[in-house]
Amino acid sequence: MAKKTSLKDIAQYVGVSTALVSYVLNGKEKQARVSQQKVLEIRQAAKLLDYQPNLIAKSLRKGQTKTIGLIVADISNPFFADLAKKVEEFARELGYIVLFGSSDEQEYKSSYLIDVFLSRQVDAFIVCPVSGTENQIKKLQQTGKPVVLVDRYFPGLPADSVRINNREIAMRAVEHLILGGRRNIALLSYQTDLAHINQRKSGYLKAMEKYGLAVNPELIMEVNYANLVPKVEQKMLAAFNLQDKVDGILFATNSLAIAGLRVIENLGIKVPGDISVVSFDQSEVFDFYYAPLTYIAQGIQSLAENAVLLVSKRLKEQIHARQYMTTILDAKLIIRESSKIETSLQLNGSISGLIQPELRAEKIG
């Protein structure tokens, strides 16, 4: 094994003191009044000798590791994969390294990842929490490390969070279906206590109520995360066998949409001729479907950027000075072939084709 280059090696190569090399490589050359020529010689020597700084020792001296622990709910979901990629990109721009893990919607795995990241001495956490982990987050907050919840949150837990306006955008999506002449509209969602999913259900109900449309409880289809595909098929077959034909559907996530579209295809139901379809989240699958899907774009780039910026802000503050902040992004409704509006049935001025994003922030607790 080749000997690792040390500060002393660089000092001997250039003919200066080890202390002077340390000042230059730590960016303190002005403080030590080192000439530009000597700075250049030292940096060139460090590169030539392949000097690699001891980051562990450096982090111990500064009290920071410049790492962020990121826990997403399910990396197999393209939404979370893209979110993780964007978080890593924005964090890198600010000089942070991201350690990543997927809880796979499991409480025990979330707890395991938190413990692992704490043992790795990450400076802060960005977490997309799973159901039942409120106490885990509360305990994590008590360590004093910044914790930012992204996409999901717990209404009863004061915390920094970045998310979208789930209720409002779900209401706009269902309103879009109604204005396109659809009346017997279904919802496929998860059976969960997670607030963001329940807000989407609330938005669906509010839109139906606004236009005086009765809601058949059997059209509110809820499934568990486990064994998703067979359960979606079972629920949708029951709904599509009802006397009143389902003519519109809102999928609460892209995973549900992909499973649901298989059922629609197998039943020979035409989109948008027989049924109009809208889904939360974007997926490449939507683009290749014969009727490209209308979807709700959650603004993954903005979610990631705001989460990283909030973490960075917290790391520069004193713990006692922190005041929790909720950042809510307005999502976009991207209208495409799967929900073509029948112009004759559209109510003028009630809905716009695209909803421009806005950013709201409020302080809590």
Automatic annotation (TrEMBL):
Keyword Transcription regulation attributed? yes
Q: Which keywords accompany this UniProt record?
A: DNA-binding, Transcription, Transcription regulation
Record has Secreted as a keyword: no
Q: Which InterPro entries match?
A: HTH_LacI (IPR000843), LacI/GalR-like_sensor (IPR046335), Lambda_DNA-bd_dom_sf (IPR010982), Peripla_BP_I (IPR028082)
Which CDD domains does this entry report, sorted A to Z? HTH_LacI
GO molecular function: any one?
DNA-binding transcription factor activity
Protein name per Swiss-Prot or TrEMBL: Transcriptional regulator, LacI family
Species of origin reads Arachidicoccus rhizosphaerae
Q: What is the lineage of its organism?
A: Bacteria, Pseudomonadati, Bacteroidota, Chitinophagia, Chitinophagales
